[in-house]
UniProtKB/TrEMBL annotation:
The lineage of its organism: Eukaryota, Metazoa, Chordata, Craniata, Vertebrata. Residues 86-226 form the RNase III domain. This is Large ribosomal subunit protein mL44. GO terms for biological process: mitochondrial translational elongation; RNA processing. It holds the Pfam family DSRM_MRPL44. It is found in: Mitochondrion. GO terms for cellular component: microprocessor complex; mitochondrial large ribosomal subunit. SMART domains: RIBOc. It comes from the Eukaryota. Keywords: Mitochondrion, Ribonucleoprotein, Ribosomal protein, RNA-binding, Transit peptide. It comes from Galemys pyrenaicus. Its main location: mitochondrion.
Amino acid sequence: MASGLVRLLSRGPRCLLTPTAPTTAPPVRGVKKGFRAALRFQKELERWRLLRCPPPPVRRSEKPNWDYHAEIQAFGHRLQETFSLDLLKRAFVNSCYIKSEEAKRQKLGLEKENVLLNLKDNHELSEQGASFSQTCLTQFFKDAFPDLPTEGVQSLVDFLMSEEVVCHVARNLAVEQLTLSEEFPVPPTVLQQTFLAVVGALLQSSGPERAALFLRATLGFPSSDKKLIAEAPGETVLVAEEEAARVALRKLYGFAENRRPWDYSKPKENLKAKETLPVKAAAT
């Protein structure tokens, strides 16, 4: 303490009177980078949380910008088929949906007249669609495979009419989003019944010809407009794919194994090229 006081007095009074300049802290850099890194980390955590615990599926009708009437009309245009709107709307109404809605109204204490819904389920349309699909697919396979026995035809029809195949086709056609059902996701049995009801609605709206074409395009023989370029065996799938790619390239560029051998004969001279001489017109 004494030594420090002696140093200040030796420097003179100016050292005591001059105010010390405020010390400013150096600017801290990298704050924005740290903030961005924190946001990225938070988004990554959110993504992993959604992957591990995905949220329950929500009906499309519960999301914004939903117009059921417009979606019904767009469904027919998307399939390029002409439907009666009343029949198509009826095809998507299941009996379980009507029962659940009536039970909800009854819990609210409404009168019996107001509890009943003015809707008709798709049971009749589904039966018509199932019967027509069974007959139509059977005829398709008999025409395509005339030597196939009846048991083979029936097994193919049963496979295409199975719950798994029909539900797969219905989901790809967005039938599940328009189906009015008590549960969501729609149970496979209800979804299969709804798809067959759509077939029945098309049968009554546009006739058996359009319904048969629709079945042929969806359940029967879907055309993907693809051609088999090459095929090859292999010990594993990867080896077979690589060998098939080599065979395809040979076929595309004309280097197939069964091509004609190289022509080593003397090339023929083009006599016409020698005979033709440039004609010069002399001006007189």
